[in-house]
Amino acid sequence: MSRDAPPDLSQDVSARGLTLAGGHALLSDFAELIVTNTGVEVTVAEEPETVVIRGLRLCLEEMSTLHSLYRDADR
To answer: What is the pTM of this model?
Structure first.
């Protein structure tokens, strides 16, 4: 498996950094470990243990709007 990221993803990560979400984001010094080993800025999401499920809830609440956006993007 290749470790190379697509150029657009690499550019976004370099410019914007990474945001940690999920339980691992709460591990002591994990963000600092990533920064030290990659040089990429890292932030921890607000309430990282629930951020993904909250985002999913928002998507489900807006399903009809999102459906039309994706349908239009397929054209």
So the answer is: 0.67
The token duo for 27 is: 């591990």
Burial-class residue 51 by CB neighbours within 10 Å (0-12, 13-18, 19+). Answer: middle
> So what's the pLDDT on residue 1?
42
11-37 pLDDT tens trace: 888 899 999 999 999 999 999 999 999
Structural contact between residues 30 and 24, judged by C-beta atoms closer than 8 angstroms: yes
Buried-state track 25-44, b at ≥16 Cβ within 10 A, e below 16: beeeeebeebeeeeeeebee
Whole-angstrom distance, CA of residue 36 vs CA of residue 4: 19
- Side-chain half-sphere CA neighbours of 43 within 13 A: 7
**Residues near 68 by beta carbon (within 8 Å), at least 6 away in sequence:** none
